[in-house]
Design a protein that fits this description.
Elements: H1 2-6, H2 11-37, H3 43-51, H4 70-82, H5 89-104, H6 107-119, E1 124-127, E2 143-147, E3 150-161, E4 168-176, E5 183-191, E6 197-201, E7 212-222, H7 234-270, H8 282-310, H9 314-343, H10 355-360, H11 363-366, H12 371-382
Parallel strand pairs: 1-4
Antiparallel strand pairs: 2-3, 3-7, 4-5, 6-7
Helix pairs in contact: 2-4, 4-7, 5-6, 5-7, 7-8, 7-9, 8-9, 9-12
Amino acid sequence: MSTARTALETEEHQALRAAVAALGKRYGRDYMTTVIREGKHTDELWAEAAKLGYLGVNLPEEYGGGGGGMAELSIVLEELGAAGSPLLMMIVSPAICGTVIARFGTKEQKQKWLPGLADGSLTMAFGITEPDAGSNSHRITTTARRDGDDWVLTGRKVFVSGVDIADATLIVGRTEDARSGKLKPCLFIVPREAPGFGRNQIDMELHAPEKQFELVLDDVRLPADALVGDEDAGLLQLFAGLNPERIMTAAFGIGMGRFALGRAVEYARTRQVWKEPIGSHQAIAHPLATAHIDLELSRLMMQKAARLYDEGDDIGAGEAANMAKYAAGEACVKAVDQAVHTLGGNGLTREYGLASLITASRVARIAPVSREMILNYVSHQSLGLPKSY
């Protein structure tokens, strides 16, 4: 598995991958399942990853980051996931929020947030999805209106990860264009304790350290500097955060798929029912080989997306990031499914840590955008086919 990766990666990337893999191995799946079972958060792993500079590897050096990009950050999440200890908030805090603030925030916003996001002492959530506006961001009804020098936000958000541990949430709202009267998207930093900013935990079948919340913004008053960047560039800023989100979701899926595949391969090598280990039978070996191929192909597209994004090609990165997220989501689900089948009854035991992934692996398929919407994107943007909506 290592040959295909190292041939395309710099020595620095190889070293980063090895170092993060070593960190992940020290924690592993047992750490993650214990944290989930006890209702805790991954504070220890988050703190150590931050101390080693992994959480902010994509953020500017002048604000305490590593000066890298999505290529480096995706390696970190993938390797932690491959060890069984993915940090979902990496997708949100440094990748989405950190990137948006680094690219479009004011000098004051950068100074206030980026050092903390880089060293892990500050965490930021991201709220875009609404009850009646899932993949259709044009239907977002959370609005921001001016009141003197302040902004007043009103609306609802759902499926917002980690609000309970986040110091603030980057909220996607809409403001009225003074010239056209139409609503345009804008991004606002909402502190956790802002008056009128309420949260309710959503009861999920998905077991993870990161909880999901519904947010209610009831006339939340914010100062003028809560608006990120230029009011007229909200759509550009929004997509600047969504491409990293897709790249990192791909890394999340690839890491999880690699973990499941690794468990299955180890089991197939040693589990002996007849004369030979079960891995010698093609009915076992070939599906595992196929899962490996799919994961490797997904990584190639993720690497392409990360490189295009880091080079400033937002349009090219958008296409590649969507494809990478789609491919990784499919590969992850198939790898987990095949791993469970390979282990049989053992695949459903707590000892092997695979059963919980049956649900978790679906995350990469449905979030942050469904595979069907990605197929719509590719149909329209890549193939030039007409829209059905």
